[in-house]
Write a structure and sequence with these properties.
Shape: globular
Radius of gyration: 19 Å
Region (Disordered): 205-238
Number of strands: 0
Organism: Phytophthora infestans (strain T30-4)
Distance between the termini: 43 Å
Number of helices: 10
Protein name: Reverse transcriptase zinc-binding domain-containing protein
Largest sheet: none
Strand content: under 5%
Biased composition (Basic residues): 228-238
Oligomer: single chain
Length: 238
Amino acid sequence: MHQTPKQVWAHRNQLTEYQVWVAYRVAVRQLSLYHEGKKHDSSCRKPAACQGRKETMEHIFWECSCAQACWVKLIQQWTGEAWEPQNIESFQLSCANRKAPPVTPSLVEKMQKTYPDDIKHIILEWKRIWHILCTICLTSLWTQRNRVVFQQAQVTEDSSATEFWGTAMRQLRALGKRECRQPETQLRGTHLLLCLRVLEQKPREHPRQRVSPEQPLDLQEEPALLTRLRKYQTASRR
């Protein structure tokens, strides 16, 4: 991970302490992979597809089929487009350093149509979401690995991705609601919650297709709400 310790720990209360700890340990390569059975079998214990594959940090957090399933889920939902595991190599650095890649033009166009007066803030929130999602993904992969190794839990590609995504959405939603309750972060929290509506939409398949008219964003009231919130914040600072 191409980040300084200061960058890793600067989470502004949007991540848990354990998530920040895991991200830091991954960055400095100081996670202990030791367990009693490792001296007899150092292979990955998670899915059957990884039997015989040596367990390394690279394997746990990227090469393992469970890791690939989680990253594919993250990339698909964030870009709004369907991806296969063999096609996500270009995202590896962005996943590792948790720095958002460029937002896809089709997604910018969709957000521009929905939030024309707030597109700058929406894009900033979208990039913040990437950072949070990547951190949660790393933590989920590590906790799943430990359950398999120390508790003999069963994990599949589907269950791994489902667990990660469920945790991510609950945490992002809770963060948005918490920020909405504070005057100084109310507008940001509102932007985050609006972004989650887009994040939860089903990714479109390749080749590129038009967004179905049967699945509108249905967010007509939000621009007016954002206008009222901006006026409120301006008045509260006086």
